[in-house]
Amino acid sequence: MTARAVVVLVTISRPTVNTFHSLHTYLEQSFAFASQTLSGGLAKRLFSAVLLGIICVFGFSYVLPAPTESPTVASPTRHVHWPTWRDVHPTHLYPLPLHATLEQRLATWRNAPGIGWEPADFVAWNLQTCSDVIPNHNKDLIAKASLIWAVMNSTAILTHRENMASYIEGMKREGAFDTRSHVVHGGRGYVGEGRGMVFTAGNVDTLKRVVYTLKLVRKYYDSQLPAAIFHFASERPADDDPIRKELAELGAKLVQINRSKDAGRTKNYHLKAQAIVEAEWAEVLYLDSDNFPTQAPELYFEQPNYKRLGAMFWVDYWKTSASNPIWHIIGVQCRDEWEQEAGQIVIDKRRHLDAMLLSQYLLLNWEYWYYFSDGDKDVFRFSFLALRKRWALPGRYVGAAGLPSGTASGSFCSHTMQQYDNAGRPAFVHYNLLKQIPSGVGRGFSWGRTKQVMSYPTPPLRPITREEFSKAQLNATDKWWEAESRSSRVQERYRLYPYPDVGGPDVVRGPNDVEADMLANAKDDGKAIQPATLEVRRRAALERGMRPFFHGGVVSALCIDFNWDDPYGKPREANTVGTPPDKTAPNELGIDWGVSPLEIVQWTSDDRLRDLEQRVYDEGFVPNAVGF
User: How high is the pLDDT of residue 569?
Assistant: First the structure.
């Protein structure tokens, strides 16, 4: 009896269905054995004592977390149970290695945190990293989706997780990853070869805007990159429509997708992922029809962080709420980072077709998934996170480009998202609100200036030491030591668990080679998920104070603007010339929190922007239109 008990006590480790079955079988056999060899009273007392010991050991095994190793790629098995969110390994924040297989990525996702958790438990876990996103969270999405989120239980959430993973597996079985022949050429694969530009456009307004963009890149940037314009069957131009000839002369072809267009919507951008997937090229520059590049499109494929990671996205003005169930579905703790805007995407399908297929799955069911992503824009980010992938980011936060003067609702009116390249220089002019201004814009009155965050500003103060801070007896002690304490914890994580694929422990990438994990979850010390240089950390810390907002839209144009919220005082406007600091709150990055990092720059001072307005109007540009 004693020997049999020892065997069970040694072999039982963590509760599973098989463990419970084995324990039940063992208890039945042991009781029969004891009854045959011992007297009834003694048998019961001895058996009860052994049973109590087993239950105690088993119970402690359940309550205490199982020992975990430094995280590795999960094997292709399903549903490993995590007891609670308090037991998740600290490197759950890390992506998988760049060389991880699809099977490994899907296995890791299926076994990710959240199995057996109630939605409220996941939200509580999210608040550890996203308690500060409330000033910038996407209020419009929360307003329309909160009731949908509230009725989701853990079964529904994990069913979504499984369905999404199974879709990618199904596409693989159908040959989607076959590199030998693309579907355009009669094959089964979607990887493709070469490079090209992809647009989605169909009605007259959107097709004409694509024409303006193509004229810009062909005539002024001397680009020869081929282009394809994807559209619904109902949007097919007539065979004798002059725009067909015009597009052909500009090196673009129309591609029809046999899906029904939703007649009740003017924004039909749920076609975007499918257009990227079905494009015949391996490397794709996707552009919305209302987006002007500021240089030859070929150059976007040469950015070092894109070449290293195979994907580059650009940020939006908002952040995703900790209460959004998408975090539970993808098994990723909420990330304090900017959402994406998908007006431009650079992607290598040889490395990321799986994520594009997952994005396609979400957009094929867009009526539902728009409750989790405000439109199409964040399905790409969520797909990358679900598969534990990494992506490149530009060298500067999104700028707000706008009218040369103010409007009735404010002194600064932006209608354009100005996006930047890896080095922080203007790269795209995404005029998503300009086309909604009914009147008053035209040549010389469309653009003129941009409000932006200074690109890696030199610290106005040198970094202060701990001893100097103590001697100064300044009034930010709690904030300082909180940051220092977190800084020590993050540094310890970096030391114990190196970030994967950075090139070695001494490789810390700088401001021209930024990726998302170098900014995500940063606090006042600027330390994020992935180590970065002081310049990047300073950027990450300063971006936490960005506060975008809308104004106008009733008696004047709908405008977007932003201020910077000094964490030690009141919000501050941009410095058009520069104002001297009126107070200091030193920190290890040397940031003077009393000086706004915003600036307003004139387009006439930038080589890439100076002539852009004149050029597009010379090609017939019309800013006002109803199509998207």
Answer: 65
